[in-house]
Amino acid sequence: MPSRVALVTCRPGPQVSVDRDLPVLAGALTEAGADASVEVWDDPDVDWGAFDLAVIRSTWDYSWRTAEFVAWAERCGELTRLVNPAEVVRWNTDKRYLGQLAAAGVPVVPTRYIAPGETPGLPDDHEYVVKPTSGAGARFAARYTPGEHEVAVRQLARMHEEGFTAMVQPYLKRIDVSGERAVQFFGGRLLHAGRKGAVLAPGTAYDARKVAHPGIEPWTPTAAELAVAERALAAVPDAPELLYARVDLVDGDDGQPCVMELELVEPNLFLWLHPRSAPRVAAAILAAATG
């Protein structure tokens, strides 16, 4: 009997991007001999226990429903094998993990956190970025100069009203030249990489929809980028088994790569950009379903 695999996504909506990978991946799994279907994570009619494996893919509405999503992951993980596991989902949906990576010696974008009720001290000598600790697709993210503090304070107030903790990071200007690199791993091995342009343009409102991956193109990661990415993965607590991971890197002021985000929940794999990767991904998923 073929392995039953659920590719987990979310309902379509005005704030949700279309997952171009889903039909590609479902087709590759079918060719590899699996019984694959696309399922919506919050559909109450899905019998998760009927699957051999549930693979979180484009659950891109989770960032404004984090507690609900984590609770679903924990329930699903009790009924079938969920990848990545619920404990990874719980840890990675809160970007305060960057502080843990930094404490482990991983180079990361310097980050300060402002929780609801805390004084919103903002930088007065450089451009900076404000965004939530639970976010995807640059939702509720914006770039400011010191002269735009009033707007930034309004953003913080709005985020705090909705219960979000804010992150404040320096805007690393090298991203305007060298872009952001997404280094992808699947089945414990390097899969491929891509490079995209800067997402946050000056003057773009925090609540405006952004193009999440502008100008994405294939990229060959450097030795330094691979080293940082591997250090980040090694620093994930309790060394969980990760089916997939994406490490987003930018260049710091010293020109060396540092981690902007470690995507372990629902990273876009950009299979449409790397067609040869689909069979490798399907083989790794099938091995996880039968292992």
Summarize the structure.
This protein is α+β, with helices and mostly antiparallel strands and 291 residues long. The protein has helices at 21-31, 66-79, 86-92, 97-103, 149-161, 175-178, 223-234, 277-290, and strands spanning 4-9, 35-40, 53-58, 81-83, 112-114, 128-132, 142-144, 166-170, 180-186, 189-196, 217-218, 244-251, 257-263. It is globular, with a radius of gyration of 19 Å.
Q: How would you portray this structure in words?
A:
The model has no long low-confidence stretch (mean pLDDT 93). With 291 residues, the protein is an alpha+beta fold. Helix 1 (21-31) packs across helix 8 (277-290) and helix 2 runs antiparallel to helix 3. The protein has helices at 21-31, 66-79, 86-92, 97-103, 149-161, 175-178, 223-234, 277-290; strands at residues 4-9, 35-40, 53-58, 81-83, 112-114, 128-132, 142-144, 166-170, 180-186, 189-196, 217-218, 244-251, 257-263.
